[in-house]
Each structure stands twice: as structure tokens, then as C-alpha cells.
Hints:
It comes from Sporosarcina pasteurii (Bacillus pasteurii). This is Heme ABC transporter. Keywords: Membrane, Transmembrane, Transmembrane helix. The protein is mostly helical. It has a domain at about 20-75. The protein is about 65% helix and about 10% strand. It is built from three helices and two strands, in the order H-E-E-H-H. The protein has a two-stranded antiparallel sheet. Strand 1 and strand 2 form a beta hairpin. It is elongated, with a radius of gyration of 20 Å. The termini are far apart.
Amino acid sequence: MSHHKKGHQNTQDHEKENIEVWEDLVHIKDLLLALLICSVTTLSGYFIAPSEPPKPLFFGLFGALIGFLITSIIIQPKRTFNGTKEEK
Length: 88
């Protein structure tokens, strides 16, 4: 297999593993993991809250924040940036 075909196949494999969300490519496995973690922490916050309004809302929002922090630590960005110096 030539280098060009191999590169094209890698691109196709990469596209199969990713979906487009808000004009950005996201790895399906990472997206599902993040949704699962955020759902569990949000619902946990909601259900452990006292039943006096608006505490379930605030506990749920705090759980969502905790889920976001956990996923941002666990799931590392895959994007690489190559900087170039601009000549004056």
C-alpha cells in the first residue's frame, strides 16, 4: 500500500471515530464518556439535595460543574497547534 493510500485510509478511519459537534470534530468515545460522567454527577447532586426549592437546582448545577471539571481532567485535548513566526 502506498504512503498516499495509507494516509487516506487513516483519515477515513479517523473520520469514522469522530463526529462533528458545533463545527468541531469530537471523538465518539470521549463524548459518550463525558456525557455519562456529567449525567451521573448532575443527577447525583439533584437527588442528594434537600427537597426545599431551589436547592435541587443548585445541587444539580454544582454536580454538573463537578462533572465538567472531572471530564476536563480525564479527557485530554487531541488537537495540536503548530506555531509559525511571522516575518516583519
